[in-house]
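Running this now, will post back.
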Amino acid sequence: MPAGRRLLVLDGAPGRWLPPGWEVVPQCGGGLDRRLADAFAHAARLAPAAPALLVGMDTPQLDAATLAEPLSAARRPGTDAWYGPAADGGFWALGLARPTPQLAARLLHDVPMSTPDTGAALLRRLAEAGLDVHRLPELRDVDTVDDARKVAAEAPGSRFAARLRSLDTAPEVAS
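Update: finished.
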């Protein structure tokens, strides 16, 4: 996916799995609401005039084609935010055309996370802020083994599906 900057907000040190071209900044403490807002604040400091899209790491079936058209330069005018709903009532992506630390805090602080109403609460905040929101496709995020199996079935040729298959066929270890 073309991007001017790729930023990974991470709790810990990156491993060999991190592709080249990514900047890594430490994740702040606190709840997920604070950590997401802080990630937008990092993005705004590093590239003040650029849009930012946060994507959860638990949507391995996501591909560039899903984002290419809705985030293209031709589609961005008039869009203030992008929202990717998750099948469980949460969200897998949130983007802001003009992120600022203040806007991110207003949108995200104290939104209850990891509940069936998380997405609805965030959408209310986006509406209250008067933002024009482009909805991205609904995706399933991986919170449980059942979710993992469903996501692997949606993207059977992915590395995620291959790894899950290898785990499912691994011999049981007696304890």
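The mean pLDDT is 88. More later if anyone needs it.
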